[in-house]
Design goal:
Layout lengths: L2 H9 L12 E10 L2 E15 L6 E8 L2 E8 L5 E8 L27
Antiparallel strand pairs: 1-2, 1-5, 2-3, 3-4
Length: 114
Amino acid sequence: MNVLDEIVQDQLRTDLPVITPGDTVKVAAKVVEGNRERIQVFEGLVIAMRGGGITSAITVRRIASGVGVERTFKIHSPRIDRIEVIRHGKVRRAKLYFLRNRVGKAATTLRERR
């Protein structure tokens, strides 16, 4: 193992739950406003996961005031306070980009995995 791998191994988080596409999650991210820092919770559906190791990221989509909002989070970032899985959705593909074309209740409704 070289020096770079050792540094990356120290940065990986171990407190993360198992996240898969289709899950509804609450991501608590630290937001800096001026000289203050607060925690902002973003709740939505995981529509994509990418990368591996330290570079892994999730894309979370939610409907806010009738408009679709997507945010991408690096899950091993120190800016992420915590991630909670609300429910597990049953999906058949890895990228759920087809949900972008859906409107209303159909945009957020997926069957729950038991």
